[in-house]
Amino acid sequence: MSRLVYILNGPNLNLLGLRQPAIYGNETLADVERDCLALAADLGLTVRFHQSNREYELIDWIHQARGEAGGIAINPAAFTHTSVAILDALNAFDGPVIEVHISNVHKREPFRHHSFVSGRADGVIAGCGTQGYLLALRRLDRLIGGG
């Protein structure tokens, strides 16, 4: 199985470190990418890291992953609660999928308690801050035949 992992980030995550730091922390998305690349190198994984505020771009990356990636870690952000299209795209991907949320969505507004993506995900990590991305990489490493 491919050792390539896509890490996909949805809307407003480009503002990480600036937007509501009491909820999302002070780390930027660049910090998260740097940490993911370092851990991936240690695990023998290759990472493609993407962020978009546009649903169709996330879907296009999921489609692209179908032909080349062993797994996907996705923080769909607000699309978690609204996007059947992202769910459908993930359902067409054969490898493992880990859903990541920086905050504990279950302690937040009731509309955030439902995730379309969770129905496809092989694991859900929520409330671990940006460390959740590293946990997702470690889990994907196991699921695609690593350590």
Q: Quick summary of this structure?
A:
By secondary structure, this protein is of the alpha/beta class. 35% of the residues lie in helices and 18% in strands.
* CATH homologous superfamily assignment: Dehydroquinase, class II
Give the total of beta strands: 5
Count up the domains: 1
DSSP helix count? 5
Radius of gyration, in Å, reads: 14 Å
CATH architecture: 3-Layer(aba) Sandwich
Task: Label the structural class.
Answer: alpha/beta
Reading side by side through the largest sheet, how are the strands ordered?
A: 2-1-3-4-5
| Overall shape | globular
Helix content: 25-40%
Largest sheet: 5 strands, parallel
What is the string of helix and strand elements? EHHEHEHEEH
Distance between the termini: 14 Å
What would the average pLDDT be, to the nearest integer? Answer: 91
CATH topology: Rossmann fold
Our estimate of the beta-strand percent is 15-25%
Low-pLDDT ranges: none
The CATH C-level name is Alpha Beta
Task: Characterise this structure.
The chain has one domain: 3-Layer(aba) Sandwich (Rossmann fold). The protein is built from five helices and five strands. Helix 2 (29-43) packs parallel to helix 5 and helix 3 (55-66) runs parallel beside helix 4 (84-91). Helix 4 links the parallel strand 3 (71-75) and strand 4. Helix content is 35%, strand content 18%. The chain is of the alpha/beta class.
